[in-house]
Design a protein that fits this description.
Layout: E1 10-11, E2 18-26, H1 29-41, E3 47-50, E4 62-69, H2 72-82, E5 90-94
Parallel strand pairs: 1-3
Antiparallel strand pairs: 2-4, 2-5, 3-4
Length: 98
């Protein structure tokens, strides 16, 4: 028998509070997953989180994120680098989910 491999998009680590880079967002989970896959193929680590679970983000979106950083400066540097592939990339603080 043959099996079709499945890919699972990474999610924000439970209980983690850190800076990250938001690469893009969408109201559609499938679109966000596709954008995360594109980011991964561009060499970025990427995952998807639902913004309504985090007080620092506008609710109602699926956000594609890249990395976890302990400082805003590190996240801002990563965002600047990511802008070559995702022009709207922005450093954001993600609190533990509410």
């Amino acid at each position: 028998t043959t099996s079709t491999p499945t890919t699972t998009t990474a999610t924000w680590p439970v209980g983690t509070q850190a800076w990250t880079v938001i690469l893009a967002s969408s109201t559609s989970r499938s679109t966000a997953d596709a954008l995360a896959a594109r980011a991964t193929s561009d060499g970025l680590s990427a995952g998807v989180l639902y913004t309504s679970a985090y007080s620092t983000l506008t609710p109602g979106y699926w956000a594609v994120f890249s990395g976890t950083y302990s400082t805003s400066a590190a996240a801002e540097t990563a965002a600047s680098n990511a802008q070559a592939h995702f022009p709207g990339a922005d450093a954001r603080f993600i609190p533990a989910s509410s």
